[in-house]
Amino acid sequence: MLTDVLQEEGFDVEIARNGFEAIGKINKNHFDLIITDVMMPEVDGIEVLKKAKEIDPDSDVIVMTGYASVETAVQSMRLGAVDYITKPFNIDHIKIIVNRSIDRRVLKRKAEEGEFYKELSKIDGLTEVYNHRSFHQILEAEVNRAKRYNRQVSLMMLDIDNFKTYNDSNGHPAGDIILKQLAWVFTKSCRECDHIARYGGDEFAIIFPETSKKEAAHIGRRLRQTIKDSSFEKEEVLPGGSLTISIGLASFPDDAMDKDDLLGKADTALYQAKADGRNKIVICDTPQN
């Protein structure tokens, strides 16, 4: 009877004749909803519930119980059941409970997808680091936090030297691979609290929360040397035969009063590093090799 009701509602239904068979099916397949009777021989519904939540925690379980077993139903809810159905069945009640459970799952899935796409919108599709828009939002938040708590925040702007030459010689697909590789190096070389972003084109930015200019400069020198010493495919077309980066670094509040000022100072330092011959780090107006 229950099977007929659910099928009439448009659900695909699979039947297990006992608890052992139910657990076997749950082991092999994912079910959005599992309905189990509490009273079954050998393996009862409570054990099926426990096993179902152990095997597939994301599945919803509804237990069926007699009027005299309400305490058991409450116990089932504590073990993770989403609802219970009492006997004798009321068909309309069954429909409401089952549809409510399925609707809840759909809403949950949509919410999770919404969060996923919300996070995805923050990421640069090619390099999988933060994109330009997210960079500005994060920098604004970090500078405001530094102001509030009297902390420091450092900003590093990085640019690939002679990247147009590389692209013109090897093609944009090869250039895309370089961008991905550099983003990976930056991510692996920085701390978990640091924020790496693709600022645009071949330019990257790294935000260092609660980090002095001296500490950030140490990381910058290491990054510049790591890139210089690494091997990149077809880099021999570049001047000097190897791929290098230029870096500009500035800190709040040492060099700037707000977010835009900090960005301007770091960008000016980067421009100076390029003007001074590339493959350099410039800390505000102080060149460092």
Give the secondary structure arrangement, pairings included.
Blueprint: H1 2-8, H2 19-28, E1 33-37, H3 45-55, E2 60-66, H4 70-78, E3 83-87, H5 91-120, H6 132-149, E4 153-160, H7 163-170, H8 172-189, E5 195-200, E6 203-209, H9 213-229, E7 245-252, H10 259-275, E8 281-283, E9 286-288
Parallel strand pairs: 1-2, 2-3, 7-8
Antiparallel strand pairs: 4-6, 4-7, 5-6, 8-9
Helix pairs in contact: 2-3, 7-8, 8-9
Can you describe what's shown?
Helices cover 50% and strands 18% of the residues. It is built from ten helices and nine strands. α2 (19-28) runs parallel beside α3, α7 crosses α8 and α8 packs across α9. It has 289 residues and is an alpha/beta fold. It is elongated, with a radius of gyration of 30 Å. The chain has two domains: 2-114, Response regulator (Rossmann fold, 3-Layer(aba) Sandwich); 132-288, Reverse transcriptase/Diguanylate cyclase domain (Alpha-Beta Plaits, 2-Layer Sandwich). The strands form two sheets. A six-stranded mixed β-sheet has the order 5-6-4-7-8-9, with helices on both faces. It has a three-stranded parallel β-sheet with strand order 1-2-3, with helices on both faces. GO terms for molecular function: diguanylate cyclase activity. This is Diguanylate cyclase response regulator. One of its GO terms (biological process) is phosphorelay signal transduction system. It comes from Candidatus Schekmanbacteria bacterium RIFCSPLOWO2_12_FULL_38_15.
